[in-house]
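Format notes (please read before filing issues)

Several people have asked whether sequences and structure tokens are stored in separate files. They are not. Every record keeps both together, in the order shown below: the sequence lines, then the token lines. Line labels are part of the format and must not be stripped during preprocessing.
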Amino acid sequence: MLSFENVTVLYGEVPALRGLDLELRRGELMTLLGPSGCGKSTTLKVAGGFIAPGEGRVRLEGRDITHLPPERRPTSTVFQNHALFPHMTAGQNVAYGLRVRGVGRRERGRAAEEALERVGLPGCAGVRVQELSGGQQQRVALARSLILNPAVLLLDEPLSSLDARLRVRMRAEIRELQRSIGITTLYVTHDQEEALSISDRVSVMNAGRLIQTGTPEEVYFAPADDFIGDFIGDAFPVRLEGRRRLLRPDQVRPNPQGALVGRLVEREFLGAAVEWRIDWEGQRLRAVFPSHDEGTGRPGDPVRFDLVL
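Then the structure lines:
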């Protein structure tokens, strides 16, 4: 539905995107995931028409929209900082796009109330946005985008300003809303857990390049390279039977009857989980497992474990 064809973007002499080829399918939620500066937000801005690529094409349902300005694109963007008008009410913010399009006051007011109800804010149209919580402001920003009935919804790290517990709740709400509407969505985040939990497919980027696209399970269990294995699964390289392998901490399972023996070097208590760092055959392994499963191991002690390959 939305495709990027050999898209390149330069900031001065610095490449932000290098020959990006990517296609977003109708009705799916795709996450662009990667570290800061990898090009994911630039990709979103190219999709929204806020940045024109130096090379390549952007197409929406086969139509070339590469140089179409944002206001003429069937896309709508929810920005990281919400970009709400502080002097307006929630309803006025939501209805702003319809006002620009010349829709009458009564019609846009009714549409704003419906949009706010859809995102879980019934009866809030008359409330000033400064009186709303961070999560409520995020819902207002989402309603403002959805009221325009865009073909593609663009979300640029929409939950980054929220606290951890609210982020978890909001990402579930966004996913439920996206599925109920069936809107095609491109979602930018640097949070691995957020990407894995919310996406139909994940596209991992690094240094302006697309490295791998796949389902959350594919990019987690079959990373294309060491960077993805480390960035998503916190994987580390080891040599097993003469071969180099990538292991994740959850594949190292402490077990009093385990087949392998190493030495516990460090222990880190993480609340619900505990992390062990184990020396084994001259290699450093990491194990993360539920803290209530931990035995009596102390740094310096021999420990038995298994590898789940």
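For reference, the curators noted about this record: The longest strand covers residues 14-24. Helices lie at 40-48, 90-100, 105-118, 134-146, 164-181, 192-198, 216-221, 226-233.
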